[in-house]
Amino acid sequence: MNKLDSKIPEGPLDQKWINHKNHMNLVAPNNRDKIDIIVVGTGLAGGSAAATLAEQGYNVKAFCYQDSPRRAHSIAAQGGINAAKNYQGDGDSTYRLFYDTIKGGDYRSREANVYRLAEVSANIIDQCVSQGVPFGRDYGGQLDNRSFGGVQVKRTFYAKGQTGQQLLLGAYSSLSRQIGKGRVKMYNRHEMMDLVLVDGKARGIIARNLVTGEIEKHSAHAVVIASGGYGNVYFLSTNAMGSNVSAAWKIHKKGAYFANPCYVQIHPTCIPVHGTAQSKLTLMSESLRNSGRIWVPKNLEDAVAVREGRLKAKDIAPENRDYYLERRYPAFGNLVPRDVASRAAKERCDAGFGIENNDTNEGVYLDFSTEITKKGHESAIEKNIHNPTDQQIYDLGKAWIEEKYGNLFVMYEKITAENPYETPMKIYPAVHYTMGGVWVDYNLQSTIPGCFVVGEANFSDHGANRLGASALMQGLADGYFVLPYTIADYLSADIRTGAISTESAEFTQAEKEIQDKVDFFMNNNGAHSVDYFHKKLGLVMWNKVGMARDAEGLQQAIAEIAEIRKDFWQNVRVPGDSAMNGELEKAFRVADFLELGQLMAKDALERKESCGGHYRTEYSTPEGEAQRDDENYKFAACWEYQGADINQEVLHKEELIYENIEVKTRSYK
Which of 110, 146, 293, 338 is an active site residue? Predict the structure, then answer.
């Protein structure tokens, strides 16, 4: 096992990346076609990486479990992508984006990586515009920006409420070009089942053809994992139902450290849970908090009346509404970071002021009436409409909202059968993004030589909480502008290696282990479906490793998940045969979720502080804010796999050193 070395370059913060690039080893263009690279996952991070590496001349094999890279969960990132271009002239800069990201992550991220992210962010926008991504523009044709939580500038570029989809189409067009040139061999409907190590280096993967059921061996000189986050360990989340941790977890079990697994982001603007049969949750973009105001009834009797259906939101006078984010955080208001907004919503609902009537009382209002009126007046002035009627003001304001967010409102109405222009949206926090992931050094390489991890699958940039619109930024930064440089430094030693054989003992053994697991699942005549166990795990995770955690609940979670794991391996039932079998796919993924869930609880139990999305009720201020312990916990918790028993996971610490900013209590008041 390699020593935990972050490989942060020496020198001033703003010179680290450029100096590092200037002194890295290269692979000459005439040698790149001698090198094979596997990319697992073809969302924004994986798709951009595969396209860029192929453009450079490497032989790329790209794998996705979907029927097309266009199905990647990246399309669900609706609201926008951050970049420090300061088009609005409101004081933004590379340093301010860097500082906002460090602060938003509650001072639990690596300084050098975050600065590099801010530094290359501007290049992403230029790249995407050249691909034809239809970013929103102002009246004069300039690219438009809006604000997201945790900042006081406008730096978020957007394409209505479809930003992730449009960015993915841009990356996919680049990927498709390389597929057409033969530089990328695309493996759709294939899932990585294991990583193969030869002489301690990542040299390939075992994949399963999800159509035929065939187990396949694929070799390469390096493997890139870009498989996204692990939010579906909670069963209900805003992630696509196929999103999983398996690729990242498989490399963890082969020696890659897993960092900060307890750092999970709860997004504040999700459509509330509506029943026990629900299989996933739907996110309403954070961009809506630019224009919507979040509130609950000020009077407890009004909240009860709303839940019982005796009172409607529009009938509650403004003076009887508690705009609690504006009240508690006047400087940022409705645009506080996600973890802050989520905890505030939970506090109001726990106090009895929730408005949803689904037997949980978990819901608050996201109201656009103020913005509709404001923009209606502005539009009337622009159109020289003197003394406009209330209906004209409403129509003009609604048209402005529709232009900015129209598809989000359509989506909400289709799901809830309520018109959000006339009735405030009902929202409540839900599991969304995972800041934890595979530990990587400055070069995005895991503790396994030759195994690189990009995008949400790694831990590197967001600390304990991710700012909105930064996921797309990180994915494309890693894929387009970081990995193609750093992987060359590693591959420069492989130009004389030649093709990697798949006939070695390591590949044969890995293939047999996967086939044995397939045979087990197909022949185990248990009593319960895979979803039965996944739902049980999800309830434990949400109730005891969710928005609020304490030592007793975490200890219970570890023990309860152990029982679910035991029951799973004895009583899981997978119907059908091994070809085209979604239940078999889920069985492998849920087996990994069960192991990960225990590690998340263990990591949360060990971190005796509150920071970002990790909120321990024992470590909070009297006002209910997170209370860090910088003296004892200013580190990334990096777990090394030593065996199936959770107690065999070994903790290593990467101390977080801040040389360019002052670490202080995070405040948005």
Answer: 338
